[in-house]
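All the exercises in this workshop are built on plain-text protein records. Sequence and backbone structure share a record, each on its own labelled line. The structure tokens are whole numbers drawn from a learned vocabulary of backbone shapes. The record below serves as our worked example for the rest of this section.
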Amino acid sequence: MSIHSIHIENFKSIRDSGPVRIRPLNVLIGPNGAGKSNFIAFFKFLNMLFQEQLQNHIARKGRSDGFMYFGRQSKYIAGKIVFTNDEDKISNRYRFKMEPDQANSLFFTEEYSDYNMQTRISNSVSWSNKPINFGGTTETKLHDVAYSKRTEFLKDFFQSFKVFHFHDTSDSSKLKGFCNATDYESLVEDGSNLPAFLYRMKETSPKHFKMLEFTIKSIAPFIDSLYLQPDKINPNQIELRWKEKGYDNYFNAYSLSDGTLRFICLCALLMQPEPPSTIIIDEPELGLHPAAINKLSAMIKSASEFAQIIISTQSTNLLDQFNPEDILVVEREHDQTVFKRLSEEELGEWLDGYTISELWRKNVLGGRP
């Protein structure tokens, strides 16, 4: 099962997105402030919703005024996600509506988990509307549905709606220190459990780990190997260590450049043996050498065979590695965010003489200030 489309209303700068088609690859481009981050933030909103942490998330991020289009004057936030089955037929739908309360928070007025009654017999759509929440609650009722088959599939999707950003590589970054050696179930959003996650991959999926290590060394040829073992004095802790080629010395993450450390994180995320259903990355190219960006695009394409990838980028080098249909142009029109999927057919002869990034610079694609 995969996401077919998402429809967002009154969320931050997005007044009404209309149905935004989600393909295996989705590369968001646009000027600063256009709404790329707000589109990605909506997936985080859904993740918090499913984890029943929505009220904490709202309180930390500016209450309801910080989430609603022009504040509470828009009166509600709504979202709709349509899914397709393994035969690429529209099969299920999740939708909700929330309104602000007097405490400047949000509560549900509607929540549905619908299914398409025509899925097995045709390509048409006839929704069976199934309410799971009749309103008045501040957290989802997804976990209370008696017939779990109707909502169980949402678990993998909503749990995977994490927004990965490996931007903090400062000396105080959690990326560079020790982490719990058993915190390896899944890579967390800031990569702070990277050593444990790689350790698990090394022990349980050695072929994938060897491929990951080979990819890292192709960008950082000074690395002979990664050393991942729990600390001998404190076995509950583990850190990322590596051996330099031609020497017996072992170094930790503090001895890696910012770009190399971020690239290792991206390799772990995109080359894991069992990727999540959706992978969302905010500006993955940050601090990477052009050669590493080429490797990154190859990893993204490969991962898109098993997961739906959503990334935002400002990199012209990265953009040129993708097809027009992979690209979503994000712009602000009439004080709201709008989305446009590119098409090779619509670009026509432009592609005979120019690259995608050149057309972006010329503002043929849109997405410029």
Summary: The mean pLDDT is 92. The radius of gyration is 22 Å. DSSP finds eleven helices and 19 strands in the chain. Residues 320 and 356 are 6 Å apart (CA to CA).
